[in-house]
């Protein structure tokens, strides 16, 4: 662990690119340290590395390619942490009113019949000095072991960090897995899900199923369940499929951005957000993670002899998450990104509260 902290401290001090992350359930933290500071864009989805994609679909994801990076794994040991932070960001004048206006505007569009769902969002900013990204990552892992937690840095982009509860795509051979995640309440509310929440989540499931039917077969759609993400609960449906001949890139182009982060129909919601949201989401509600990275599998655990080697195989797998519950940091300024799904039944004030609740995920670790 000390070594991990040292590596990250060194990269941060020299302003060299890196990513360090923890996949839910893993016993280690994985890091990529690219050999230089060139900002690389993914050319094709058969490359291997750690990718970082913006919300906006016209630019290719950034990549730290496996081929030009030192890829290291560090065993995870429970860290000694400072108690949770009391860092707060004061609301700016007009901030709430602006968001209420944006939500009301979205509701009007929906009621006019052009769109069924729009996921509006906002950026909460404050002066901040981030001294220690390794400590930030360890806190994220400690508080959110069930999330994909990461700290990513490139000198030309800045630092991003987060704890995402949402799988966009997991592949293993031809197996494909994703989830429809939507609807939000606090654990302590202890109430049942409303029609509005059930509806906004169903929209996501239906669209994902539609997209996957084009590229896969043997679709399996789980029962809807309640999923815990920190102090919040979401509705979640898992969807798996066997990919036909489609490439991961084709599937991602179809899926991203899903109605969990953009809306339905996608184009209309996207246009609305471009015109009215009033800021650039950059990597928030984009996606990130491992692309075609080796998984070492042991097919037989019983044979202990040398021949055992013959049963070992390396399969390359991808594990991509939606970039939610995240912050960006550059030039001594921290930005927290939060949003929520708007439908015809949304109540603007409640949507504001939802974004405040979502901001707590990252405030707790700053
Ligand atoms: C947009 C966010 O989250 C998404 C929107 C949700 C909602 O509308 O209830 C729930 C989970 C995510 O799919 C966010 O966290 O900023």
Automatic annotation (TrEMBL):
Signal peptide: none annotated. Residues 96-358 form the Chorismate-utilising enzyme C-terminal domain. It comes from the Bacteria. Pfam families: Chorismate_bind (PF00425). This is Chorismate-binding protein. It comes from Psychroflexus aurantiacus.
């Amino acid at each position: 662990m000390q070594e991990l902290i040292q590596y990250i401290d060194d990269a941060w001090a020299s302003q060299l690119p890196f990513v360090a992350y923890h996949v839910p359930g893993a016993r280690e933290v994985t890091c990529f340290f690219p050999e230089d500071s060139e900002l690389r864009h993914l050319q094709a989805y058969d490359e291997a590395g750690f990718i970082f994609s913006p919300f906006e679909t016209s630019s290719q994801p950034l990549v730290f390619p496996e081929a030009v990076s030192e890829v290291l794994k560090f065993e995870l040991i429970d860290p000694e942490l400072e108690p949770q932070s009391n860092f707060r960001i004061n609301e700016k004048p007009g901030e709430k009113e602006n968001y209420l206006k944006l939500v009301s505007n979205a509701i009007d569009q929906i009621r006019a019949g052009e769109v069924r769902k729009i996921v509006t969002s906002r950026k909460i900013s404050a002066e901040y000095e981030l001294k220690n990204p390794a400590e930030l990552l360890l806190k994220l892992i400690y508080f959110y072991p069930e999330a994909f937690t990461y700290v990513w840095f490139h000198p030309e982009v800045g630092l991003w960090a987060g704890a995402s509860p949402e799988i966009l795509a997991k592949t293993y051979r031809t197996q494909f897995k994703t989830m429809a995640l939507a609807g939000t309440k606090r654990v302590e509310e202890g109430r049942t899900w409303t029609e509005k929440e059930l509806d906004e989540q169903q929209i996501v499931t239906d669209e994902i199923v539609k997209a996957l039917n084009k590229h896969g077969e043997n679709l399996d759609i789980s029962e809807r369940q309640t999923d815990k993400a920190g102090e919040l609960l979401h509705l979640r449906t898992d969807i798996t499929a066997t990919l036909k001949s489609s490439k991961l890139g084709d599937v991602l182009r179809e899926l991203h951005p899903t109605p969990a982060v953009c809306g339905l129909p996608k184009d209309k919601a996207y246009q609305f957000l471009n015109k009215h949201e009033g800021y650039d989401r950059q990597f928030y509600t984009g996606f990130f993670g491992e692309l075609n990275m080796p998984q070492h599998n042991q097919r037989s655990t019983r044979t202990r002899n040398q021949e055992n080697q013959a049963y070992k195989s390396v399969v390359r797998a991808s594990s991509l998450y939606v970039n939610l519950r995240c912050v960006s940091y550059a030039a001594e300024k921290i930005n927290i990104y939060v949003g929520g799904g708007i439908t015809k039944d949304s109540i603007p004030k409640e949507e504001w509260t939802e974004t405040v609740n979502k901001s707590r995920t990252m405030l707790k670790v700053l």
